[in-house]
Amino acid sequence: MLDLDVHLQAIAEGDAAAFGRWLAGAEPSLRESMRSFAVRVDVEAVLQEALLRVWQVAPRHAADGRPNSLFRVGVRIARNLCVDELRRARVAPVDEEALERALAAEEAGVMPAGPDPLLRRVIEACREKLRGKPAEVLEARLAAGGAEPDEVLAERLGMRANTFLQNFTRARKLLAECLERHNVDLGAELS
User: Fold this and answer.
1) Among 12, 13, 14, 11, CA closest to 24
2) Which CATH class for the 4-107 domain?
3) Distance between CA 140 and CA 150 in Å, rounded?
4) Residue 84: how many CB atoms within 10 A of its CB?
5) Domain boundaries in the chain?
6) pTM for the complete prediction?
7) Each residue's pLDDT tens digit, 99-122
8) Which CATH code is given to the segment(s) 117-190?
9) Are residues 34 and 47 in contact, defined by beta-carbon separation less than 8 angstroms?
């Protein structure tokens, strides 16, 4: 990302067009910085509130000499708003130390590696809700890790291959429905 602080002086003077240019450069990365909260928080509402607050604090903001100082303020505002929303909703306990480490990594320009822990919890909760043959088939396929063909897995479970595939399709459908109920955008997650 280019240093968006080139717009800072004009934004501080109330230039809405300069803020629009800043916003065009900052919004995708700002939105991405809140991705891990998307399962439990209305990220779009938080993003709008964060951008309004950035506009309000910009006249008082003093650049620290590092690139994108106003953007970093925006990330902190957005993440703090997400944490506030989580606390307000009392959805799940928040590991504040982990959030602080993530904020420090973000400010240092280092994106945390690894899967989204909130998404992983939602997927596990949905898997636990599966029952019967769909659950057995999904577990068998995951345990095999792609090393064994479906015909072998079906035989091990005492099913015909077609029945195995039908149960796997049911398991996928049930998982997708559960994830959608938890506001997981499968298209975005799989892209």
Assistant:
1) 11
2) mainly alpha
3) 9
4) 13
5) 4-107, 117-190
6) 0.47
7) 677 667 666 665 545 566 778 888
8) 1.10.10
9) yes
